[in-house]
Amino acid sequence: MKAKIITDSYDLLLGFRLGGIDGKFIDDNEDLSKVFKEFTSEDDVAIIIFSKSCFEKIEDEVEYFRKKNSIPLMVVID
């Protein structure tokens, strides 16, 4: 199982990549929703990590998904 990160910070993305966690840099809200759907459709993703600013942009979509599914685990970091 894998973990993935969705962030709008290059520094945060680089730090997680150095730790072996792949992810996407987001600079557009449309891309954010698209990447979230892409990550949740992958069978081998166990954890999706969000930066706080990215989570706040699609919080309703994430919460709706969390109510229906227990995997992957959603984590928000400051």
Please describe what this structure looks like:
It is a single chain. The chain is an alpha/beta fold and 78 residues long. It is built from four helices and four strands; from the N terminus they run βαβαβααβ. The chain has helices at 10-18, 29-41, 52-57, 59-68, and strands at 2-7, 22-25, 45-51, 73-77. Strands 2-1-3-4 form a four-stranded parallel β-sheet, with helices on both faces. The longest helix has 13 residues, at 29-41. It starts with a strand and ends with a strand. The relative contact order is 0.24. The mean pLDDT is 95.
Count up the helices: 4
Radius of gyration: 11 Å
Average pLDDT over all residues: 95
Q: Approximately how much beta-strand content do the residues carry?
A: 25-35%
The count of β-strands is 4
Large-scale geometry: globular
Order of helices and strands: EHEHEHHE
Q: Tell me the distance between the termini.
A: 24 Å
Going across the major beta sheet, what is the strand order? 2-1-3-4
Poorly predicted residue ranges: none
Task: Compose a concise summary of this entry.
The chain has four helices and four strands. A four-stranded parallel sheet has the order 2-1-3-4, with helices on both faces.
What key attributes describe this structure?
single chain; 78 residues; alpha/beta; four-stranded parallel β-sheet; 4 helices; 4 strands; 49% helix
SSE layout and pairings?
Blueprint: E1 2-7, H1 10-18, E2 22-25, H2 29-41, E3 45-51, H3 52-57, H4 59-68, E4 73-77
Parallel strand pairs: 1-2, 1-3, 3-4
